[in-house]
Structures are given as C-alpha cells and as structure tokens.
Amino acid sequence: MPEGPEIRRAADDVEKAITGKPVLDIFFAFDHLKDYESLLKSANILKVETKGKAMLICFDNGYTVYSHNQLYGKWYIRNAHNYPKTNRQLRFAIHNEEKSALLYSASDIEVLRNEEVEIHPFIAKVGPDLLNDYVTADELVERFKSSRFRRRRWTALLLDQAFIAGVGNYLRSEILFVAGIHPDLRPMDCTDQQLKKAAVACIELMWRSYEHKGITTDIELAERLKAKGAKRYEYRHWVFNREGKPCRIDGSEIIKFKAGSRRCYYCPTCQSKES
User: Fold this and answer.
1) Which residue among 51, 53, 143, 197 is the active-site one?
2) Contacts of 134 by beta carbon, 8 Å cutoff, 6+ apart
3) What is the chain's mean pLDDT, rounded?
4) Residue pair 77/17 in contact by the 8 Å Cβ criterion
5) pLDDT tens across 197-245, in order?
6) What are the pLDDT digits (tens) for 37-52?
7) Could you tell me the CA-to-CA distances from 222 to 29, 83, 95, 125, 156 in Å, in that order?
C-alpha cells in the first residue's frame, strides 16, 4: 500500500496536470457516480490535497472527489486520452486539452459537497498529516503521552491512521529505528528523550521520504552507496526490508518479525529494550 509520501507525490503530479485548464471530460467507472460526470466536467479544479493516504480533488463548483488508493490503486498522468497498457481497471479519469489524470484499480471513490469533506468517516477520524498540517515535535510528544495513545504498542499505534496520518509499514520500522525504540514498547514505557526522538523522526522521515522518493536513510549515505553501484533497494532504508543484513550504525544483524500480520524490522542493539 502506498504511504503518505507516495500519495502526496501523486497528488502533486495530478495537481500539476489538471489545474489551470478547463476540465473537458470526467469518467467514473461506478454506476452510482455516473450522474456526477456532467456536473464536474463543467467545472474547474482549484487544488489537489491529501489527508494521509486519501486524495481530495477540489472543484470550483462546491464539490470534492475523495479517493483512497488502498492496496492496489495507482495514478497515471498521460497526454490527453493516451491510456497506458495495463491489466488494471480504470476507475476514475479527468481530462483536459493536454493531460489526463487516470486512477486505476482503486474502489474507494466518492463525490462530496465541500461541507461534507470534514465529516467523511475517514477524514473525520484521521490524525494529523505531517506533510500538510503544521505540527511541532512537542505537539506530537503530547499526543504520544495522551491517555488515548500512551498504553498502545508502537507497532500497532504507528499504523493507526487516527494517530498520525500517512504512516505505513516501511515508515513504522524506520521511525522506531531512528528513535532507538524497541518495537515491543509503548509510549508510556519510553523516556522523554525517546519520545522527543520519535516525534522528530516522524516529521523528518515523512518529509525525507516525500522529498527523496521513498528514501529514509541519511541522504549523504544513500548518495555514497549509490555512487559505489548499490541498487536503490540496497540504500533506501535503515532497517526495512534488510533482514539479516548489518545495521548501518553498529553492524548488528537486522531482525524481521510479524507485527499485526505485517513485517517489521529492527536492530536489537540500537533498539534494545533496556536502552
């Protein structure tokens, strides 16, 4: 599943392609949305926003198209009406005279009045989006310490979109590694220093991944490894997808385990329970 940084980059591409020029045509694959096609193709697009893993395409006639890629959704930006060769099913398309923004495989698509956006079930419950909402590290620490979240294990908490929007599987492992927190712990088990490091890691890694197309390691380290011929998967992360490989900090073997049926990775020394 794409995480917050991937959805934000997709939104940037969609916004660049479809704002500033009149919408000439709209396509919805689902019958219950067909009536909106004529309504929306007479409007202009004001902006494209994200809330975690959801995308919001805002029209100037008071309507917003909500979409969530879920596991398999994928956006394509093409020259107008130039469709990619793919076995995916087209679910939603916006066309202007130059470009087409095409959403394939996603099934969670809705058309909302602008006043309905904030009360949409996903939007209403989702936590702060660190790529769109101004949130300080201190504010995140207070969130970690709140009675709502402090007793929950980090591995489950970081995947809860009501906690922080847009964090997914690779960011979970990377945040805990950078913060030096063992994945079995809860916020209430951590020192103030660990909580502050976790807050900073949430913000910095979310932005680093967004700005550098999924890279969460130190950028200078990634560049050095790339210059030596390393492939992208070899320099992209600190611990995620690196089972059995040496920790980039102290050389310990990276461990993989299942947390909530999804894989998680950590360094047993950098993230010791006693640290």
Assistant:
1) 53
2) none
3) 94
4) yes
5) 999 999 999 999 999 999 999 999 999 999 999 999 999 999 999 999 9
6) 999 998 999 999 999 8
7) 41, 35, 38, 36, 29
142 catalytic residue (yes or no): no
Is 262 considered catalytic here? yes
- In the residue annotation, 2 being an active-site residue is answered as yes
Only one residue has tokens 């210059």, namely 227
Phi, psi angles (nearest 5°) of residue 258: -100, 130
Whether 183 is catalytic = no
Residue 186 in this model has a pLDDT that exceeds 90: yes
Taking the C-alpha atoms of residue 44 and residue 21, their distance in angstroms, rounded to an integer, is: 7
Q: Which of the residues 34, 148, 262, 273 is marked catalytic? A: 262
pLDDT score, position 261: 86
pLDDT at position 250 over 70: yes
Burial (CB count within 10 angstroms: exposed 0-12, middle 13-18, buried 19+), residue 55: buried
pTM over 0.85? The answer is yes
Set out the domains of the chain in order of their start, with CATH numbers.
Answer: 4-125 (3.20.190.10), 137-266 (1.10.8.50)
231: helix, strand or coil: coil
- Which amino acid does the sequence have at 257? F
